[in-house]
Design goal:
eight-stranded mixed β-sheet; single chain; alpha/beta; four-stranded parallel β-sheet; globular
């Protein structure tokens, strides 16, 4: 779903140094998403942009495409219906937005003056509408010489909806929402100073005070969270209303699932009222109980503390808040960066809060991670001179973004073990299988890029890697990339039997190497049970022929019936095109997505992404997959290998 929107700045002075990529003054930023990532080199204006946003008195939010549709629907509705009333003061009836000719054309709505004129016209039309539909208006006689009919029933509801929706779209003030700023200056540690013979805690949030002074922020309008007052925040939330306490419990659940293997987590701000009365506060620390075992927060590692600060405020903030974060990658391993991004994009509790994020970053890993996400927009900032910054909306994977970050080649970071797969489609299928398996078994899905990482070796290129010290030295030493390897390959090619035997022998002698193959099945696509193809193929039918719900149901029935007449064993060792060609004989709406007459898939990645997408939506489950014992065998061994590599 496309949730893109624009923001419009009414205070030009705050953004007078910013321009779009057409060299126009930046008054409207287009196509934002729930999550907006701001990238660019040092001193490129990212943080200044965030601070300007935080200080702005009015920033309007507008769904440009939806508003355009509303205006079009309204104009058609007015033009096609013969009804109305005259305003008693100036003898004007309902009007379309075409009445103002070019000055109100939609392409110029970026100007605040035009936006104001639009709101005035909508308000005027609403006044007429209310006049027609209130008790007084209903009793008035319409002029007999004008062929008007009254607004009744559905027409009345339609016009009311269109007018109020347009008004709400044009009038939504983003700055009315709670704004939370998490600056680069942050820590989960309490700060102490030496007073005589003992340490005394500095209760004042000196980090926050520094940010307020440096950036001239109004703390009554912006909640600044540095983590320095985390102790007092936990004391307060533990004694707050039920909703707040529940949000904190969700935060504890997040920590449990992602860092402590599902163990019960309880976070406590230790407090002794008698010590407080005596002026002793050095015992005021944050305690994390892991299955009742006490741990001080500052003993858990900088990475967990960094994520603790970022996620705590996100979990406990008000719904629909605006979250501004400066460089979340500070102290975060790339795997934890992935965890952070996955939480804010997929966590059900957080998504229901309807938060909007603005994140400035220097991390190319954030850009890598956004490739798989739909609800993210990336904005590239480029400094032209000290008084001019250009802001450009870039696509996922745009190389210019990496260039301005100063990145030449992505670094490789080691996870605790690696899963070697032939390509991106294998990675997506195995990820879908593993996620479904974990959900069914109520296991926690392992943390990608920390507990395990996928490595794609591109088919026959596997021959260039050395998995055995006795092999030829000119090959790449695979164990220099990662010292625990789970290798999976398709069972095809001229030398598959010999290749299979070599890797089996290596695995029998090296406990850090395990080998699995799709043996008995030609390619990984052949592993997909018919139950899965039944749910996938409807998405690869001609959309021109499958537009209505009735057509969808009819074609889905044809796909199901065609699969039911076939034997899965017949297609194990043939390219998947053989199965799809035979289905198309019964389902003409199916697009030809395989190569040649009975070849492999033409776009393997596209189909694999759909399988992963349907699994994440809960439409494909382990119950659909476990009918193939080969999938069960591979995934059980893969899960055990990851667990052994992390929790030996």
């Amino acid at each position: 779903m496309d949730n893109k929107f624009d923001i419009i700045f009414s205070e030009k002075k705050d953004y007078e140094s910013y321009f779009n990529d057409n060299d126009e003054k930046l008054q409207r930023v287009k196509d934002l998403s729930d999550i907006n990532i701001l990238v660019g080199a040092n001193n490129s204006g990212k943080s200044r942009f965030i601070r300007s946003f935080l200080k702005s008195k009015i920033v309007n939010k507008e769904d440009r495409n939806y508003l355009q549709k509303l205006i079009s629907d309204y104009n058609k509705f007015i033009s096609s219906n013969n009804f109305g009333a005259y305003n008693a003061n100036n003898n004007v009836k309902y009007g379309t937005f075409q009445d103002k000719a070019r000055q109100l054309s939609f392409k110029e709505l970026s100007y605040v003056e035009i936006q104001t004129a639009m709101l005035k016209q909508i308000t005027f039309n609403l006044n007429i509408f209310n006049f027609l539909t209130d008790d007084v208006g209903k009793t008035l006689s319409l002029p007999t010489n004008l062929n008007f009919t009254r607004l009744i029933d559905q027409k009345q509801e339609t016009l009311d909806f269109l007018l109020t929706e347009m008004r709400d779209q044009l009038g939504e003030d983003f700055t009315e929402k709670q704004k939370i700023f998490i600056p680069t200056l942050r820590t989960a540690h309490s700060i102490f100073e030496k007073k005589g013979e003992r340490n005394s805690k500095i209760s004042e949030d000196i980090f926050k005070n520094t940010i307020i002074k440096s950036h001239e922020l109004d703390e009554t309008k912006v909640s600044i969270f540095t983590g320095l007052d985390l102790y007092y925040q936990i004391v307060n939330i533990r004694n707050d209303v039920k909703d707040k306490r529940q949000s904190f419990e969700k935060f504890e659940q997040f920590l449990s699932e992602n860092f402590f293997q599902g163990k019960r987590i309880e976070i406590v701000a230790k407090f002794n009222i008698y010590n407080k009365h005596d002026g002793k506060d050095d015992s005021e620390i944050i305690n994390v109980f892991i299955d009742n075992e006490s741990n001080d927060l500052h003993d858990l590692g900088d990475g967990i503390q960094a994520l603790f600060i970022l996620m705590y405020k996100i979990y406990t903030c008000e719904n629909e808040s605006l979250i501004f974060i400066d460089e979340p990658e500070i102290n975060l391993h790339p795997g934890m960066q992935r965890l952070f991004l996955e939480q804010i994009t997929t966590n059900k509790f957080l998504k229901e809060k309807k938060l909007t994020y603005f994140i400035s970053t220097h991390s190319n890993h954030f850009l890598d991670l956004t490739i798989e996400k739909e609800n993210i927009s990336i904005f590239l900032f480029n400094k032209i001179n000290k008084d001019k910054f250009v802001v450009k909306n870039v696509n996922h994977g745009d190389n210019s973004a990496l260039q301005y970050l100063g990145v030449t080649n992505s670094s490789v970071f080691l996870a605790n073990c690696s899963i070697w797969v032939e390509g991106i489609s294998d990675r997506n299928y195995l990820k879908a299988f593993l996620k479904a398996y974990c959900k069914d078994k109520k296991f926690i899905y392992p943390k990608e890029d920390i507990e395990f990482a996928f490595i794609e070796y591109a088919g026959s290129n596997i021959d260039h890697y050395n998995f055995d010290e006795e092999e030829l030295k000119e090959k790449v030493n695979a164990f220099s990339i990662n010292n625990k390897i789970f290798l999976i390959s398709d069972y095809d090619g001229d030398y598959r039997v010999e290749k299979h035997k070599i890797y089996e022998d290596i695995a029998s002698e090296n406990e850090n190497f395990e080998y699995q193959t799709t043996k008995d099945y030609k390619e990984i696509e052949n592993l997909l049970p018919f139950k899965v193809w039944d749910k996938v193929l409807i998405h690869f039918c001609d959309k021109r022929k499958v537009k209505t719900e009735e057509e969808f149901t009819r074609v889905q029935s044809l796909i199901s019936a065609s699969l039911q007449r076939k034997n899965e064993e017949t297609y194990k060792n043939s390219y998947i095109g053989k199965l799809l060609r035979n289905i198309k004989l019964n389902v003409p709406e199916l697009n030809k997505i395989w190569d040649k007459s009975e070849g492999t898939l033409m776009n393997k990645a596209e189909v694999s992404y759909k399988v992963l997408d349907l699994e994440e939506k809960g439409e494909i489950t382990w119950n659909d997959l476990k009918s193939n014992p080969k999938i069960v065998s591979i995934i059980e061994k893969m899960y055990d290998f990851i667990q052994k590599s992390n929790y030996k």
